[in-house]
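From the pipeline queue, job 12 of 40. The input is one protein chain; the requested action is below.

Action: predict structure.
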Amino acid sequence: QVQLQESGPGLVKPSQTLARTCTVSNGPTVDYRWSWIRQSLGKGLEWNGGISSFVAIDYSPSLKNRTSISRDKSGNYFTLLLTSMSPEATALYYCTSGPYDRYYSSWGQGTQVTVSS
């Protein structure tokens, strides 16, 4: 029953930082993972990273030096910060969540983020 609502700007300039927030309803649930995924024409679906209910954070190896994921203690929202944005990072960004046996059972609406000057 967890529902996610994503928010944040849809336009980011090159070299700037992408900041996104996912608001959670009907949650959180213990043993959950809260993740960010993006979809682009060049790479398809790509996992950015996630944070667990144990506050263990994992990042994509290709993005870990640029990515920061956090969540509030109450579980009302979690965030994504992605630095050094480039046009290649233009993609549809989703927040997702799910238990450990189904990581991506809930999805936000998705937002097209365009990196352009």
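Job complete. The radius of gyration is 13 Å.
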